[in-house]
Amino acid sequence: MSTWAMLVAACAFAVIACACKSSTPAHAPRENAVNVATALDGVAIHYRVAGAEHGDPTVVFVHGFGCDSTHFETALKHAAQRRRAVSIDLPGHGLSGKNRTTWTMEAYGSDVSRVCDAIGAQRVILVGHSMGGPVILEAAREMPGRVLALVPVDTFHDVETRMTADQISGLIDLWRRDYRGSAEKMVRKSFFAPKRNPKLVEYITAQVTSLPRNIGLALLDSMFHYDVAAALDVTTLPVRCLNSSERVPTNLEAGRRHAKRFDARLIPSVGHYPMLEDPAAFNALLDAACDELAR
Q1: Which H helix or E strand runs over 5?
Q2: What is the DSSP string of 243-287?
Q3: What does the DSSP 8-state code read for residue 102?
Q4: CATH number of domain containing 143
Q5: How far is CA 121 from the centre of its chain?
Q6: Cα separations in angstroms, 136 against 79, 152, 181, 257
Q7: How far is residue 163's CA from residue 9's CA, in Å, rounded to a whole number?
Q8: Domain count of the fold of the chain
């Protein structure tokens, strides 16, 4: 496997935008409200809430590396037609604080839990795109008994494929030598299907390359070292991946060896950002997932 192929496999961790559709919405969506929770280390976590104030379950959207909560804008509004929906700017991204010293998947899991605590969410479906995949696994650990399901988005393709310590070190060194160039190459060469929206490519490239270098390098290190299979071994939650059918094959057998309730739905003609590339298809699959998993 080439260096960049390994990087793509490792970076393809997932957050899914959860949306649930109805011909007669039970609740009219509210205007999205910007709120702030406080992380355990004091960092400000910005998030937006839409939908019913006490909608059950609450759908929580977690974005990926170098992105922000706006990636789930369409999904947030769609989900809010029937349930309370929340989209989070993880620290270091969007409007949230950058004054953190330890950037890990575990810290991000705690951040998601703190937001859920702030809004009093007792039953949640966690949707995580790319890096958001391990984040929602960690958030579920922080909230035992409160999470109904995990919906990773374009991630967990093969949970048994991991890089060696030497391979990780080599990739981090590559990014350290040319952070912006490495980030741009990853997005442009690896994250989009052949039929792509040029404006979207430019938008995502600008976002990912603008993530502060120190934060990006620390997150890559944590993400590459994160053992998804081990985390799945100890979860009893249903896991419903919403993955692209174009980029990386999804190994269901590998997933099910570690999580008995592991499944996936594939979205055609999209790359790594299905919620932005085909919102209608993404929302339809999320509707079905939410309705099934919220029972």
Answers
A1: helix 3-11
A2: EESSSS---HHHHHHH-TTEEEEEETT--S-HHHH-HHHHHHHHH
A3: -
A4: 3.40.50.1820
A5: 19
A6: 18, 8, 29, 20
A7: 9
A8: 1
Q: How far apart are CA 223 and CA 13, in angstroms?
A: 8
DSSP class of residue 192 equals S
Domain that holds residue 155: 3-293
pLDDT in tens, 127-149: 999 999 999 999 999 999 999 99
Q: Residues 145-201: pLDDT tens digits?
A: 999 999 999 999 999 999 999 999 999 999 999 999 999 999 999 999 888 899 999
Q: How far apart are CA 21 and CA 133, in angstroms?
A: 23
Query: 97 and 91 in contact (C-beta within 8 Å)?
Result: yes
59-100 pLDDT, tens digit per residue, is 999 999 999 999 999 999 999 998 999 999 999 999 999 999
pTM, two decimal places? 0.89
- Backbone conformation region of residue 69, classed left if phi is above 0, alpha if psi is from -120 to 50, else beta: alpha
Specify the pairing of strand 44-50 against strand 85-88: antiparallel
SS3 208: helix
**149 neighbors 293 (Cβ within 8 angstroms):** yes
Mapping DSSP to helix (H, G, I), strand (E, B) and coil, where does residue 41 land?
A: coil
Per-residue CA distances from 260 to 103, 114, 232, 254 (Å): 30, 28, 9, 10
The helix-helix angle for 213-225 and 179-190 (nearest 10°) equals: 60
End-to-end CA distance of the chain: 41
For residues 148 and 234, give the distance between their C-alpha atoms in angstroms, rounded to a whole number. 15
Region at 130 (left for phi over 0; alpha for psi -120 to 50; beta for the rest): left
- For 132, list phi and psi in degrees, rounded to 5: -65, -20
